[in-house]
């Protein structure tokens, strides 16, 4: 069952954390029990749901963040914080930046997050992991723990740069550390319907990654940009905005896809897409 989803892209500014937060809230609105794991030392997923800096600082001081769980100083159940009735968060703190260094000498260091999550995964319908914009040890832990990868991609040509490296990393993890890992889908973000370039890039991505791109598209929307500063998802900040509606559509699409897989006969199940496809994009000269 595809329960653990990692949102990953080593390219920054593509809507990775925004997608992790709003997808989590959208699934919670569907009455699913959601755990959002903030694995990014920047802790933007945490601040995007918990605006009070003093509260976040108190968690770090008390040693109840993702950092303590992943290095074995605390149980994950001790650090989970309720955001709403169906949404829970394991907050990140500034100490997480040192985790990659501290884990270097730890046995099975790439499996630490998987081991930590195994104690609580039965309590949730989905576990969504927000990762740093890199392919380091924290992201590796997320990929080893995950069932599938969601890749946000901005609708511009440069967004395709680096995708090959990410797909190679996912394939390497699949082949050596996590044979269950699949590509959950590519998500087009920051789509500007008034811009011909956005349409061209979206068409090209759908052609080169046929069947691997979500139908739901996230538009360039000012409400999406404003919501984190208020410590809210866009669904809570401006429920009727285009951004909120697009993330609700994504949550529904993902949930319905999983339901369809579960209801299909065992021999016909294809929960996601096989790892290994590489982009054919040649890029345009600048």
Quick recap of the structure?
This protein is α/β, with parallel strands linked by helices and 286 residues long.
Structure description:
The protein is of the alpha/beta class. It has one domain: Rossmann fold (3-Layer(aba) Sandwich). Helices cover 41% and strands 15% of the residues. It is built from 13 helices and 8 strands. It has helices at 16-29, 44-49, 53-62, 66-70, 76-79, 99-102, 112-118, 137-145, 163-176, 196-208, 222-226, 234-237, 242-263; strands at residues 4-7, 34-38, 81-82, 87-90, 126-130, 148-154, 182-191, 213-219. It has an 8-stranded mixed β-sheet, with helices on both faces. Helix 9 links the parallel strand 6 (148-154) and strand 7 (182-191). Helix 1 crosses helix 13 (242-263) and helix 7 (112-118) packs across helix 8 (137-145). The radius of gyration is 18 Å and the shape is globular.
């Amino acid at each position: 069952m595809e329960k653990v989803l990692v949102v990953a892209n080593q390219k920054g500014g593509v809507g990775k954390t925004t997608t992790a937060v709003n997808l989590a809230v959208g699934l919670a609105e569907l009455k699913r029990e959601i755990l959002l794991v903030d694995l990014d030392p920047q802790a933007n997923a945490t601040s995007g749901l918990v605006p009070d800096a003093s509260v976040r600082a108190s968690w770090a001081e008390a040693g109840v963040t993702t950092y303590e769980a992943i290095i074995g100083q605390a149980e994950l159940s001790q650090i989970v914080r309720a955001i709403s009735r169906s949404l829970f968060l394991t907050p990140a703190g500034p100490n997480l930046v040192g985790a990659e260094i501290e884990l270097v000498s730890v046995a099975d260091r790439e499996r630490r997050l998987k081991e930590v999550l195994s104690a609580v995964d039965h309590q949730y319908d989905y576990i969504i992991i927000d990762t740093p914009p890199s392919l380091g040890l924290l992201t590796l832990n997320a990929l080893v723990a995950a069932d599938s990868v969601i890749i946000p991609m901005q609708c511009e040509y440069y967004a395709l740069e680096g995708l090959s490296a990410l797909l190679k990393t996912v394939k390497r993890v699949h082949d050596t550390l996590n044979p269950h890992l699949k590509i959950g889908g590519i998500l087009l973000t920051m789509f500007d319907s008034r811009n011909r370039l956005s349409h061209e890039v979206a068409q090209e991505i759908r052609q080169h990654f046929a069947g691997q791109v979500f139908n739901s598209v996230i538009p360039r929307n000012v409400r999406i940009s404003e919501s984190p500063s208020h410590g809210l998802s866009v669904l809570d900040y401006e429920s009727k905005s285009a951004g909120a509606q697009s993330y609700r559509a994504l949550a529904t699409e993902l949930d319905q896809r999983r339901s369809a897989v579960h209801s299909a006969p065992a021999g016909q199940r294809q929960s996601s897409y096989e790892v290994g496809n590489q982009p054919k994009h040649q890029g345009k000269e600048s």
